[in-house]
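[Q] Does anyone have a clean structure-token version of this?
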Amino acid sequence: MTGNPWQDDRGNKDRSITKSSGAGGSGDPVRHRTMGSGAPRVTDGPFLIGDNMTGGYGSGADILHGCTLAVDPGQIAVIVGPNGAGKSTAMKAVFGMLNVRSGAVRLEGEDITHLTPQDRVAKGMAFVPQTHNIFTSMTVEENLEMGAFLRRDDIGKTIAQVYDLFPILGDKRRQPAGELSGGQRQQVAVGRALMTKPRVLMLDEPTAGVSPIVMDELFDRIIEVARTGISILMVEQNARQALEIADRGYVLVQGSNAFTGTGEELLSNPDVRASFLGG
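[A] Here you go.
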């Protein structure tokens, strides 16, 4: 065990124990441990679920058509699919950034469909957009401090944890974030989201535009975050690499679920491989 909570050996990545009561599934109620409570709360489904979502932006046409996404504590759920499939739209719907005209979003059994994104942050959800996700004129540390805007407790311990997770940020804490490389900027964005002490971390294309080496490093850090019990819901264009670390995978096509399964199942599915993974 180390002093770094992101590196504690918690969570089980064995896909054979992935809960059968995931999206669209059935089975015994899932017990989720609530923050600050010794007793688990029993719910009738996944910890977070966007259930049968249909909707779009404003009064425009529907982009999602009965789309379902779900993730449990400590799991990594990955959304993949072709360009224009509605991947980012689906995640934004879960975060409350567009109209869900039918279906529902539930967090730990509570219907949060009509809550604003700000209210969802207060309930433990954090969202990292693909672009424009840092304050370029502020230093690295100032960006992290901005991530804790809702907190009234001492944030120093969390900042130290972020620096343990991303050591390069500690080295560059006084440097303007706009001067960092693309991969380092993504680390700042993820670190700022972690400053909210989220229960769910949502990432939109976290490896977009970074080198393969940086991509592998970011995926390693995402695994470490999930091992602390934080749920990860992630959109990724690097589908094969993302599914390799996924407990749950969703392949979307035209705003609907085309394939759902564990990452391992989707990687071995010949239809998924031929259509979305290059054979």
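[Q] Thanks! Anything notable?
[A] Residues 7-42 have pLDDT under 50 and may be disordered.
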